[in-house]
Every structure is written in structure tokens, then in C-alpha cells.
Amino acid sequence: MTKLLEVSGLTAHYGDFQALFGVDMQVEEGETVAIIGSNGAGKSTFLRTLTGLRPSKGQEIRFCGQQIAGLPADQIHKLGLAMVPEGRRLFRSLSVEENLLIGAAGKRKGPWDLKKIYDLFPDLVAKRNNPGTALSGGQQQMVAIGRALMSNPSLLLCDEISLGLAPKVIKDIYEAVPMIRAQGTSILVVEQDVSQALAVADRIYCFMEGRVSLTGTPDSLSKEQIANAYFGIGEAA
Amino acid sequence: MTMIAQTGAAPRLQTSLSVIILGATLAALATAPMWAGRAELRLLMEALSYLALAQMWNLLAGYTGLVSVGQQAFVGLGGYMFFGLAIFGGMGVLPALGLAAVGTAIIAIPTGWLAFRLNGAYFAIGTWVIAEVFRLGMAQVGSLGGGSGISLPVDVARSLADGRAEREMAMYYIAFAIGVASVALVWGLLRSRWGLAMTAIRDSELAAETVGVSTRRLKFMIYVLTAGFTALAGGFLFLQKLRITPDAAFSVNDWTAFVIFIVVIGGIGTIEGPIIGTVLFFALRQVAADWGTWYLMLMGVIAISVMLVDKRGIWGRIESLTGWHLLPVKRTLD
């Protein structure tokens, strides 16, 4: 397998506050990797730094072998790194289909098109002309994922896609992950919901206070190890 | 070309109503020199210029979120450049107006470079400061009259037409062209592939970035474009006044505060909003201009009331209640 994403020693600051302290991470082609961690562990900051939404000049982020640190967000997106942002953030004046189509503006070649997205999320077909914001939370999340997939990314980053959704809806959304992967798209999910993350991921990284506190395959890690790495205490959860 | 259908079919009645309203307005404006007196024509000219200023400020603030309180910089630069080109360059009115617009757009590149280092409220204050620098700087230019300003030689205005009536008519059609072109420009832009990206930025800048919209480049382009068009309106406004001074040219009240009022009460982020706002602003001015400072207070009360009732403005409210678009925007990706 070839390396898709290689991050070494990544740091991030908000003014005087340091949010990330030298994070290393790798994602191989075809892999599903999950980042777990509690609120404020630096997960979203990590994704935002990767995608160019936060400054990353002078850092070491390689995507498909190319150094992407410091590139503007739109150029990183063109290289095939797309993100489903936290909170979905659909374009409220656009219809479901327009929300999807705007994702394809970069015209990257690949397996994903409108038909494939509707196959993946059949619920959206009947809503295609509705405003994106007139949908249920789960359907909005489907549009947000579809919008990111429409750019045919090599690596799809999902920021807390289960946030604020009912357990049944979360299950539906996560059922799409293996199907996305079957199209050859690698996935990096950020989750607070540990069980979902363990269920879909080949490998997990646990973040705590801006550092990677644990990494491994779901099978190789015990509950205690994860609880310790997640909360910083031995016997919790 | 991928065309994206407008969401939901607009009821036929609304479409017919739109065509009738737009057609009647255009016909009335196009024939104004035949039915309007001199005073009304002058008022219409001013209103059409304000419509252009409002469309440009709305394009900038309503679609790209760049809230500038320094658009007077470009009105003033447009005015001064027009005077300079006409007086010292010996150019005719139309080429001088066009060149003043292009020249101002070019100046907007370095000023934008500076202002774009600032965000949000700092950007707003930054644009104001830049405008003040131009005002103070222009007062130092002796050949353009310094602080006391300069008048446009009679020959320049005469070059438009010989007789007074013909001249006024020519002036009116310039204003008509500027006003209509400003609406057409925004409409055309929103229907182009930039339109979808601009709408996306308006809805959520962060999400626009995550789908690969080059928000910075697009915003800069819009900033420069609106500077040029604002200068065109500015050049014309001072052609109408025949005299320019730094205080009048770079007035934050006249060229930005009133314009923001127009856009905010009409409906920010819509093409129709500035049109409605302009009509209301001039109607209000006709009624209340003699009331002195009460008039300004009334304007403030109206603006605050509209914000409290519905911050989308009058057209925003109508649109959300009826789904009606006077100028529908069919979006395209190519």
C-alpha cells in the first residue's frame, strides 16, 4: 500500500494557546482511519490544518507525496482532499442538488457523480429540489457527505458526522462508510463516539490535549487502554 | 454546460408580474425625458447613480461578506480622475468616465491588498481609513484645487450636446445606462459560475472553502470590480454637480452611510433589495428632507425598525413569504 497522507510533528496555535503538539499520522491508500478524543483534544484543529483552513506554513504535511502545508484551501481541495465540515454547513440558499453540484466544481475525475450519490443515499432523491436546510439532520449530513464526495477526493475527511444525530440515524450514516470505501476513496473520520469509530476503522488514533495518546488497530486495543488514552485516567468508562 | 434548475417552479402569476413590473419600470425610465420635468430628471439621475452605488455595496457586503465603510474612496477617486482626465487630458465625457473607472479599479488592487490583511470589523475600519487617506491626500494636490476643490469647465459638459435640453437628456441616458448596467452586472454575475460560488460564500464561507471555492481570490476580484463600477457612478455624480472638493468627494455620509441604509432596508444579499431601498430612500428624502436633523433621525429609526422586524430587509421578507424573485437567478457551473 502506498502512503496517501503523511503528517509529521504537526503543531497549531490559537494566539498563545497551543492546540497541537507535534502530531504524527499516516493514512494508507484504501484505509479507513479514525481519530477519537474528547472535546478540545485538537481533532478538529488537526483536520482544519490539513485542509488549509488554518495556517500550516512551514509544517510537514505530505499528500500523495506532495508537500501541501501552506497551500490555500482550494488548491488542497483540488489535489483530492475533501472535508465534511463539523455541523454540516449546507448552503441554505441552494437546493440539495445544487449543494451536491457545487462540490463537483473542481471537475476531478473519479467514481462519484450525482447518480452514485443518490444510489448511496436514496433518501435524497425525493428531496433533490428542496432547500438543503429543509431536511432532517441525518439527511443534511448525507448532503454534506455527498457534496464532499462529488469532488472525487482520494481522501475524505469527516468531522464529527454523528454530532447531534439520533442513534438510528448515526447507524444509517455509518453504513455508507464501507460503500464509500468500496469506490476506492480513503476515509479519515473524527469522532467522539468511540464505538462507531472502532466499528468502521482499520486503525485509530486517540487524541488527548493536542497529542496522540494512543494508536493501533481496534482489535489490538483494550477498553482500558482506550479509556486511559481518551480521558487520561485508568479505570474510567 | 450543466444548468441547474431553479428550485420549485415559480408560479406563473409571479413570473408575469415580474415581467410587467420590470418592463413598465424600464419603459418609464427610458422615456423619462419625455414626461419628466427638469427637477424630476435630476432626481432620477441621482437615484440611478445611487442604485449603482447600492448594487455595488450589496455585491461586496451582501455576497462576499466584505463590509466596507470606505466606498467613498472610490466615488471620490472616480470623480477626481474624471475631472483630471477631462480637464488636463482633454478627453470627452464618456471616455473620461470609462477611464476613471478602469483607473480606480487599478488603484483598488494595492488598497485591496492592504485592506485584505484585515478581517471583519478591522476590514471595515481599514477601508474607512484608506478613504480618509485619499481625502487628505487629494486636498494636497494643488492642480486639482487642493482643499477648496475644482470646477468642471463649461466646455466639458458642452461637449455632450450643444443645447441645454439635449445636454440634460444625454446626461440622463448616461445615468440610465449606469443604473441599469449595475443591476445587469450583478444579475449576470450571479448567473455565471461565479454566482454559485458567491452564493456559497454568502451562506457559509467555511463550507465554501471546504468545497474548493477560492474565497480569497473571488472576494478580491469582486472588491476590484465594485471599486471600478463605484468610480463610474462617482465620476458621473460629479459631472452632474460640475464641481468637486475633497470633502464632498470622499464623504462617508453621502456615499457610504446612505448607501448602507438603502441596502439594509431594501434587503441585503438580494438584487431586488437595493432597487427597493433606492426607491424608499428617495421617496423619504422628498417627503422629509426639509425636516432638518429630524429627517436623519427618522432614517435611523426606520433602519433600526426594519432590522428588528426582519434583518433580511423588506425584500428579504417578501421573498421568504412568497418565494418570489423579481430577477430569478438560474445557476450554472460552467
TrEMBL record, chain B:
Keywords: Cell membrane, Membrane, Transmembrane, Transmembrane helix. GO terms for cellular component: plasma membrane. The chain crosses the membrane at residues 17-36, 48-69, 81-109, 170-190, 220-239, 259-284, 291-309. GO terms for molecular function: branched-chain amino acid transmembrane transporter activity. CDD domains: TM_PBP1_LivM_like. Its main location: membrane. It is found in: Cell membrane. This is Branched-chain amino acid ABC transporter permease. It comes from Donghicola mangrovi.
